[in-house]
Design brief:
The structure is a homodimer of 357-residue chains. The first copy, chain A, is α/β, with parallel strands linked by helices. The first copy, chain A, has 12 helices and 9 strands. In chain A, the strands form 2 sheets. Chain A has a 7-stranded mixed β-sheet with strand order 5-4-3-6-7-9-8, sandwiched between helices. A two-stranded antiparallel sheet of chain A has the order 1-2.
């Protein structure tokens, strides 16, 4: 086991412990497939991939496409290490979100129709969009928390097209989208005009401050920042700057796929410390991302499972909800030219940064 | 609205904002019943109670037993304030936990039989136990995370009898309970002996350090601390001191009923800061408590709903899971004589402290 851990640590530059490695292996055992295990490993993609490779290098597993099969030697080793499979009990009815879509089935159907010809995810802005079920679950979550009905909603980055689902529900008073990608701005504008949804869009790079006329104007913000501490601080800071004040809420997703647990702790310290908000909810694996076209081109391909396009959506994130308190500070400084997309855990290197890294 | 907020603030000594008060009122509207609304108000019990009273004082609602009915004047006021009901979409299948009990139905049945004659909750130790479904959901959650199968489990305070459900599942390698209440220690010992479960018990007040022979010995701890910063630091600190090291996990519940959001933020800063752990999961309303016998004797009774024993379980808590990292420090100092049960948000004043407060 020590040797195996040493290999993972060296190859990934992380500090993975024995219990963490055992949890990854227990996920492989439970799912039997590399991609299907990923929502449960709770570790960066690269760490999971290297663990599969380390098992393979020692003859403990074989691969068959993306399947991971333990060999006889592997089975004996599992017994010695007392590693047993995870028992995955994710609720079938709600996909583990805890929130039923029953009251929103009409919305889901209509939303799917409207976004059929949506712009595809592109590498330049670190995009990747969630399933329609996820987007509508977001509306349901907002509605359960009272953060959308009669409320003013600010969406910072919207390749998931939450603005369309939110406006279609008829619940919000106002929906404003700030988005860097002109293709998405145009798509939202077209749908909004055709369906009379009244969505307002602003084409802006969030490294610039929020425009004065939308500061302190919203009850709720939603964003999905790139997973670096810099981006999180920037996006959530902008979101908070858009809120009216205490009791207003912010929503965003964080993955394990691109952030190890040290970074998660840094995020949590940042949110509750410098940013001064409280974390009220965290829903594990809430956000299910549709596999993006450029996936296999951008990841390593040194073991068989990584050369097989996944047959299911594997990229998930935990949905955070935060609330602003009386003493929460407001930041809206420019961060022009700042690198916000890439750090050591990044799964995908954006066009401009790939060479350097 | 300002007057109403002022009354709530003055009567409760809190800093409730307009959006927070609106969320409480939106919960009353959605549930139509004081007790049924409580899992959704996300505020201390006393703040919810005072909000109901403030609405009543202004003729905006009437009470019928524990029902809250908006008057004509109240309905007009709701329109003016743009307050709409929460849309509660909690999944029926999993009770909103996201985890199905399907694989554990046999365990649930057997657990219910074994704990039929459990000790009742007593005020002295701030007790109140969760439903059997909750206890077995804890086992399912542990198993989904790989924190119980083949693992050594430490339970700090166990009026919920998790030790019995865990041992009955046959999953853990070792289960140790540290518990202050001799009645519970005896009950667990009796069941364990009769059913040959091998649970180890230690009768100890956690203000004392953990015994040397169980330090750094466990993969997982579970605790349910009283809701003061002092108690949280003490209980979680003890739990971490019992863990083997990085990658090991801790579980505990926190409510809104007894902790406002400033205290939640303090908890989160404590966990990620001084205690040095990362929060990996938070499952809202995971823990459902059975109404305890002494409930109505210990709360205010100045409005009608508070004089009617609730017909459903209303007291919930959010289930936290944390993980220990490589740099997480270990504390095990004595805290003898320290007040850990009561602060301004406490719902129930324990025997020894009620007079002073």
């Amino acid at each position: 086991m020590e040797e195996l851990i040493a290999q993972i640590r060296e190859a990934t530059g992380t500090n993975v412990g024995i219990d963490e490695a055992k949890r990854i292996i227990a996920s492989f055992l439970a799912a039997g497939d590399f991609w299907a295990a990923l929502p449960y490993v709770d570790q960066p993609f690269n760490v999971a991939a290297e663990t599969a490779k380390a098992l393979f290098d020692r003859g403990l597993v074989e691969f068959k496409n993306s399947e991971i099969l333990f060999t006889e030697k592997g089975k004996k080793w599992l017994d010695e290490q007392r590693i047993q499979p995870l028992i995955i009990s994710t609720c079938n009815n709600c996909g583990g979100r805890g929130i039923s879509l029953q009251s929103f089935s009409g919305l889901l159907k209509r939303f799917k129709e409207l976004v059929k010809d949506r712009p595809e995810a592109i590498v330049e802005y670190d995009q990747g969009y969630v399933t329609p079920e996820t987007t509508v679950s977001r509306v349901a979550f907002l509605a359960q928390k009272g953060d959308i009905q009669g409320k003013d909603l600010l969406i910072l980055g919207d390749d998931d097209l939450l603005s369309i689902a939110a406006a279609l529900s008829g619940l919000p008073n106002r929906v404003v989208v700030v988005e860097i990608d002109e293709r998405i701005v145009n798509f939202i504008n077209n749908v909004s005009k055709r369906e009379n949804l009244g969505i307002e869009t602003i084409n802006l790079d969030l490294r610039n401050p929020l425009p004065e006329n939308i500061l302190r104007s919203f009850d709720t913000f939603w964003t999905d920042p790139p997973e670096t501490v810099e981006a999180l601080e920037l996006f959530i800071g902008r979101g908070i700057a858009g809120l009216k004040g205490p009791g207003c809420a912010g929503y965003f997703g964080i993955t394990y796929a691109e952030s190890d647990k040290f970074k998660w702790r840094d995020f949590q310290k940042l949110i509750t410390g410098k940013l001064g908000a409280v974390i009220t909810d965290m829903i594990t694996n809430f956000n299910e991302y549709v596999n993006w076209d450029y996936l296999l081109e951008t990841i390593r391909n040194d073991i068989e499972p990584l050369t097989v396009y996944p047959s299911l959506n594997w990229y998930r994130s935990t949905q955070f909800r935060i609330e602003v308190l009386k003493d929460t500070p407001v930041y809206n400084e420019p961060a022009t030219g700042k690198e916000i997309y890439v750090d050591k855990d990044a799964l995908v290197f954006t066009g401009m940064d790939r060479e350097e890294k």
